[in-house]
Amino acid sequence: MRSPLEPDTQLDVELSAICARNQYTRDAAPVIAELTAAARGRREVLARAAGIWAGYFDSPETHTLATALRGVPGAEPWAEEGRRRRGIPRHGAPIR
Q1: Average pLDDT over every residue of 27-42
Q2: Domain locations along the chain
Q3: 91 vs 72, more confident
């Protein structure tokens, strides 16, 4: 039997899924409201998920949401972590 995910991990997955589902939005306010409600007061988890998502996925197509996510209190330091992760080369099997 597999052990369930930790509650913070479950919440992080849920918040990241909300971001991904709404990544091309032109109006980020409802997305931020949905994220805030889903976080159920877990501000530190919301800040981490929002910041990492914003830093990793910021592009011209996702810029509206990424900008709004960086505005979540405490998210900006995590956005730097997302940018760092984006810069890590992909890994996998060697190409022959």
Answers
A1: 98
A2: 7-85
A3: 72
Residue 28, C-beta contacts closer than 8 angstroms, at least 6 positions apart:
22, 64, 65, 67, 68, 69
Sequence-distant contacts of 14-23: CB under 8 A, at least 24 apart: 14/38, 15/39, 15/45, 15/46, 15/49, 15/50, 15/53, 16/49, 16/53, 19/49, 19/50, 19/53, 19/57, 19/65, 19/69, 20/53, 22/65, 23/57, 23/61, 23/62, 23/65
- For the whole model, what pTM was predicted? 0.87
State the Cα–Cα distance between residues 61 and 55, nearest whole angstrom: 14
